[in-house]
Amino acid sequence: MKVIFVNNSIVPYRHEFFRFLYKNYKENLKGSKVLYLTKNETIRDWVVDSDDIENFPTKVLPSLYQGRNKASTTSDFILNYGYFKDISEGDLLFTLGYSYTTYLFMALFARLKNKKTICFCEISYQDKKRGFIKERLKFFLLSRLYNHFAVPGQKAMDYLLSMGIKKDRITLVGNSAPFRYDCKNQRNKNETNKENINILFVGRLAEEKNILFALDSLENIKDIELNITLVGSGPLQLSVEERSINSKHKYTIVPFCDRELLPEIYCKNDILLLPSYSESWGLVVNEAIQFGLAILASENVGCTVELVKDNGKVFDPSLPFDFINKLNQIVKNLDEYKERSLDLHKINDVENNAKRIMKCLQKLKE
Question: N or C: which end of the chain has fewer CB within 10 A?
Answer without folding.
Answer: C
